[in-house]
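Renewal narrative, Specific Aim 1. Our central claim is that a sequence can be written position by position from structural information alone. The example that follows is taken directly from our test logs and has not been curated for this report. It begins with the structure tokens describing the chain, in the order in which they were read.
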């Protein structure tokens, strides 16, 4: 399957999943114990504009945007999907941040996936299920969006090593009147090495 290379050098694989697999995956995802987290900003409590979950084989927690998350487990279907990614891309994914965007109002703000748990120059893969949504990309330090990649149902987007040092991405909000259906994403990561190293000190 030939990927499409985006302007910022990500690799996009439309229909990476077969139709028969996507419906099973959606039912597995729908059954996860999704979390609604909150952030306190200037003394005011804000609901994060999506539901999420940290999934990992190890009990290692994951910290991003000031929220610390314990692993909600490592289901067999996720282990199988991870194995497939690792075979195809020669990666070492062992964990995933799962996101549930309930409608167009749900989103993720501008960021790079550069948490210390991920090590240097991580490769990140995003599997998308449900309604198509746009991932915006801009250069670090700039506010102008360079490109908008449509993440279709069943697609895979690969952010290569080095991408996170130069670029930021965001899952863009859309009109809740226009986008009423939900989308799930699984963003695969490799975590653990730094913690092992720290434990040895
Ligand atoms: O939902 C997406 O496609 C993007 C999510 C993302 O950037 C992340 O989980 O770090
Ligand atoms: Mn991200």
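The sequence written for that structure reads:
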């Amino acid at each position: 399957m030939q990927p499409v290379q985006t302007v910022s050098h990500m690799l996009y694989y439309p229909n990476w999943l077969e139709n028969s697999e996507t419906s099973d995956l959606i039912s597995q995802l729908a059954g996860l114990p999704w979390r609604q987290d909150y952030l306190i900003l200037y003394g005011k409590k804000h609901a994060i504009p999506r539901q999420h979950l940290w999934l990992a084989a190890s009990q290692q927690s994951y910290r991003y945007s000031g929220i610390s998350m314990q692993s909600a487990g490592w289901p067999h279907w996720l282990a199988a999907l991870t194995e497939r990614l690792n075979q195809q891309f020669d990666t070492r994914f062992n964990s995933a941040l799962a996101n549930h965007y309930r409608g167009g109002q749900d989103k993720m703000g501008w960021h790079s996936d550069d948490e210390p748990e991920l090590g240097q120059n991580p490769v990140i893969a995003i599997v998308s299920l449900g309604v198509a949504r746009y991932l915006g990309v801009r250069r670090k330090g700039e506010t102008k969006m360079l490109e908008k990649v449509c993440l279709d149902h069943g697609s895979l987007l690969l952010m290569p090593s080095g991408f996170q040092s130069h670029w930021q991405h965001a899952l863009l909000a859309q009109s809740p009147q226009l986008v009423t259906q939900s989308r799930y994403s699984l963003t695969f990561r490799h975590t653990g090495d730094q913690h092992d190293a720290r434990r040895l000190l």
